[in-house]
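Dear Dr. L.,

I hope this message finds you well. Following up on our conversation about the binding site, I have prepared a predicted three-dimensional model of the protein together with zinc ion. For your records, I am including the exact sequence and ligand specification that went into the calculation, followed by the structure tokens. Please feel free to forward this to your student if that is useful.
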Amino acid sequence: MTNLDPEICYQIREARRAAKLSQIVVANDIGCKQSALSMFEQGDGTKLSDESIKKLADKFGIDISQKKSSVQATPDGAVVAQRTVSESKVGFCPNPRCPTNHIYEVEGRTLYLPDRAAADPVGGKFCAMCGEVLMKVCPNCGAHVHDGGFCSVCGESYISV
Ligand SMILES: [Zn+2]
Ligand SMILES: [Zn+2]
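The resulting structure of the complex is given below.
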């Protein structure tokens, strides 16, 4: 497969190693040469056919189709799912005691960091944790909410005690 993200090749290599399978065993299994698999695992996605890559992905439970858009590599090399939060539809919970709002302190001030994905996983009306009516816009100025504790338009904290 051309234009395959090398990251996928490395993931397949790691998955194969984790499964304690040799390249020969896996190559036989998917019907390719061990040498081709070896080069593929070093990041050269052109060495295997689309069909072989699909078999590898299925075998190790790796999702090829979404790799480029839905995951990102963290500095330590782990791959984590990226949150896909719609900017306009996902609200936050205005209840300061709700567990979706993480409390932190800066210079003696108590601040809240809303976890919008936890409070509003489906773009609904009510907080998934405490049932409070979700806020979809800044309570102070009406701007769209975004991740973070403060409105980028007016600078107000989203959650006030
Ligand atoms: Zn809540
Ligand atoms: Zn605002």
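In brief: The two ends are 55 Å apart (CA to CA).

With kind regards,
A. P.
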